[in-house]
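Retry 2 of 3 after timeout on previous attempt. Resubmitting structure tokens to design endpoint.
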């Protein structure tokens, strides 16, 4: 099964008011294994970032000025994510921006190009109701180091989210489960057919019994009564 863990950075919070995507980061999982086949690009949004967004991602207008426009990378992104299950934290946010970018080019929406979208924020709220479920909080909860995350970056956050997703769903280590009953049955048969070594019992000698009695008598004196080992 092919999955793509995706994150974006944007100029602001609302694509309906003209905010744009400025960075896309994706990492690929095949049968729950990281492949290293990543997709990452910066994008020239042809506008400035809001001050609040700039403080989060640190991608200045000057830095992005020579980067490709979304129209230049749309076909490469489509080819990369085609038919995959896409894993996103707070999916409506990223999907809203990507859908807007594709529709601006009069192309099929991003949502229509993927096989399925899995929102890890929804999953985290189901597993940890009433708890903080930001990406940083989940990294802390699952023991995933994010010490190198000074600013938000789409590829770095996608890599962290991949680790979080695998930790959240670690009970399912494989998509192939048909062989498991046979393995369990073989283990049971092996245990039933195994031959245990005979148990050797060594009885206490007379001298040992006398010493044991003396110890118990001393315990009786210490508790001014009868210790538990002398009771019927």
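Retry 2 succeeded. Sequence:
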């Amino acid at each position: 099964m092919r999955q793509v863990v995706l994150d974006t950075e944007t100029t602001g919070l609302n694509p309906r008011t003209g905010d744009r995507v400025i960075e896309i980061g994706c990492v690929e999982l095949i049968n729950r294994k990281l492949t290293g086949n990543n997709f990452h690009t910066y994008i020239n949004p042809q506008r400035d970032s809001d001050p609040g967004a700039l403080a989060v991602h640190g991608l200045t207008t000057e830095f992005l000025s020579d980067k490709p426009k979304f129209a230049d990378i749309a076909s490469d992104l489509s080819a990369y994510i085609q038919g995959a299950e896409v894993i996103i934290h707070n999916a409506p946010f990223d999907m809203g921006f990507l859908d807007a970018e594709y529709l601006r080019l009069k192309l099929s929406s991003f949502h229509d190009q993927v096989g399925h979208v899995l929102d890890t924020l929804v999953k985290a709220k189901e597993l940890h109701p009433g708890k903080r479920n930001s990406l940083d909080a989940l990294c802390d909860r699952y023991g995933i180091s994010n010490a190198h995350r000074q600013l938000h970056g789409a590829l770095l956050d996608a890599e962290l989210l991949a680790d979080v997703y695998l930790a959240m769903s670690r009970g399912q280590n494989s998509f192939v489960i048909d062989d498991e009953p046979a393995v369990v049955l073989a283990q049971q048969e092996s245990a039933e057919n195994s031959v245990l070594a005979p148990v050797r019992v060594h009885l206490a000698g007379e001298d040992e019994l006398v010493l044991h009695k003396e110890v118990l008598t001393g315990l009786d004196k210490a508790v001014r009564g009868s210790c538990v080992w002398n009771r019927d």
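Attempt log closed. The chain has two domains: 2-168, 203-232.
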